[in-house]
Predict the structure.
Amino acid sequence: SRRTYKITTTNLMNSNTVSVDLAVLVQPAPVISYSTRYVFERNKQMSLAPSITGSVQKCTISPTQLPEGLNFNSSNCVISGVPSVATVWQTYTVTASNSGGSASASFEMRAQVPLTLVYSPSDRIFKKGVSVGYITPVMTGNLPHACAVTPSLPAGLQIINTADYRCTITGTPT
């Protein structure tokens, strides 16, 4: 805040007073933001930089333990590296600060193994009117939330996606 100070000088002949307005400016606290959720692929280089307005002197993150292979830069609030393990959702809070104060932003992050899907054998011949049973693929990585087929399966066949039958082909060709 601005304040007026009076400075008086004196010598043998006279004195003189002058007013001086002084202010100490404090820089504003930074503003920081991230999107709400991030998913990164295991074993693939990643970098997550926030949007920052204002100057930052120091950044901190909580919890401090990041997924293995990732690093946090305490001068610019960037998370980068190669996540080497798959992780569950974790909420992190990053705080950016300077002499004017601090601001925080929270987000969720996880590293996952990409999904692979294999039907073995991949080439099959079915007889009309005979049930194909359940043709279930071998999957690695995070399980799918949905399965879609393009183009449509032959008439009488369908793809199901339940807890027990992920992306399973079943039915009787007509």
Remarks:
- The radius of gyration is 32 Å.
